[in-house]
Write a structure and sequence with these properties.
The protein is 37% helix and 0% strand. By secondary structure, the chain is an all-alpha fold. The protein is globular. The mean pLDDT is 84.
Length: 86
């Protein structure tokens, strides 16, 4: 569902469902032991957009232009999960 929603949001050519796992500092794996889920990376842009710094860096600058992409992704998740019942 997560991959399909991402493809609907930005196009299949911009989604890599086989990305290598990341060993970040998140505890998301513990949540997945209880409920199925997915960890996605929407992307914050490249160097030109100020997106090259990790979220915990003092140089990190959130790219406000991706807010609509993120919102559209979640709407596609809801649509896929609930369909016409919403």
């Amino acid at each position: 569902v997560a991959v399909k929603a991402a493809m609907q949001t930005v196009g299949a050519d911009k989604v890599d469902p086989n990305t290598a796992p990341l060993a970040g500092a998140e505890d998301f794996a513990f949540m997945l032991e209880k409920k199925p889920g997915a960890y996605i990376m929407i992307g914050n842009g490249g160097a030109d957009e100020g997106g090259c710094h990790n979220v915990h860096s003092p140089l990190y600058d959130f790219n406000d232009r991706i807010l609509t992409t993120g919102a559209a992704y979640w709407l596609n998740i809801v649509d896929l999960e609930l369909g016409d019942t919403a």
